[in-house]
Amino acid sequence: MEKKVADKVARLERQKEEALKKAKAADALLREIRAEQDRKAKIAERKARTVALIQTGALVEIAGLLSMDKGTLLGGLQEIAKIIESDPEKSHQWKSAGDAELAQREAEKKKSKPSTPT
Question: Could you tell me the residue range of the domain that residue 56 belongs to?
Answer without folding.
Answer: 1-67
